[in-house]
Amino acid sequence: MSDCRLGFRYPDKRGDTVASGIEEGFGQRIAAATDVAAVVDACRWLEAEGRGRVDPQRLRQALPALLHAHLARITDHPAFRLWLDAYFGRRPAAFRSRLQQPGYLYYPALEPRAWFDIDVLPELAPLVPRIPAVRDELLAVLANAGDFSPYVSAEAARSRTWAGLADRPDWSALHLLRRGEWHRELMARLPLTDAFLAGAPLAQYPPHAPECFVSRLKPGVVLPPHHGLSNIKLTVHLPVDLPPTGCDITVAGETRIWRDGEFLVFDDSFLHSAANRSDRDRTVMIFDVWHPHLSEDERAALAHAIAVLDAVQSAIARLAGPATSS
C-alpha cells in the first residue's frame, strides 16, 4: 500500500500531536476507501473529530496528494489520468479552444466541438419521435403551473454578467430535477415526460447533475454571453412553446434556431447566449446528457471523482466555518 500519511510534522506538543493523529487517521480512511460512501464516512469522521482541533488550511495543502492517490486507483483510462494530472497541477493544462472555458471541470481529451447533430448521438436519437407527445403534455401542465422562479439568483446581483437578470422573471425556470432531486408532485402530472427522461442518457454525477428544467425567456430578453460549468456533458433543448420568429441561440459564434419536434444540442462550456426578440414567451425544456465520446468507464470514474471532491471540499469548508450547536 502506498504511504497515505498527510506529511504533517508538528512540534511535540499535546495539541499538535492530537491534530496530527486526526489528519493521519483521515488520510488512512481515504486511502482505504473503495467507494464514495466510504469517503463520505471518512469526511463525517473528520468533522466529528477535527472541529476546533485541526487547521483546515494546512489540511487543504495536504489534500492534493491524498486525493490524487485515491482517484488514480479508480481507473487506468489514459484520458481520465490526463484530466486527473491536469486537475491537480501535475501537468500543464490549457483550453483547446479560446471560446471554451468551463467554470468547473475541463476534460482535455474531448475534442472541442460546440454543436452536435442527432446523427452523432446514438443514445438520444431514439427519443426524437417522442418529442411531440412530451411537448403537448408539458404545454397542458404548464398552463396551470405557477411555480416558475427566476433562474438567476438574487446573489448574482454582484456579478458583472448577471446583475441585470438577478432575481428577475425575465429568465425563469421550473425545475423538474435539481441536484438529483425530482419534483415529485409535478412529475406525477407528467408521466410521458417522466418516461421520456428515464430513457435519456442523463449526465449522472451527483451532487451537480443530473438536472432538468423548463426555461422561459420573456419577450425582449437577450441573455449575456457566458460559459457553462463542464465539457463532460451536453446541453439538450426540447422546444415546448416557440414564437414563430425572433428567437435564436448562438454558441461559439454560430447562431441557430429552435425547431418544433427537434432537439437542439450543444456543449455549453463554449461561449453562448440566447435571445427572444419576439412579442411572446419562449419556452424550452433543458436537460444535460453525457458527452457521447466518454466511455462508460470514464463516466463512472468522473462521477466518482466529482462526488469525492465535493464531499471532501464541503467537509473542509464546514471545518473552517463557525461551529454549530447540537
Automatic annotation (TrEMBL):
UniProt superkingdom: Bacteria
Keywords recorded for this protein, A-Z: Dioxygenase, Oxidoreductase
Domain Aspartyl/asparaginy/proline hydroxylase: 132-292
Family: Belongs to the aspartyl/asparaginyl beta-hydroxylase family.
Pfam short name (any one): Asp_Arg_Hydrox
Oxidoreductase recorded as keyword: yes
Annotated protein name in UniProt: Aspartyl/asparaginyl beta-hydroxylase domain-containing protein
Keyword Oxidoreductase among record annotations: yes
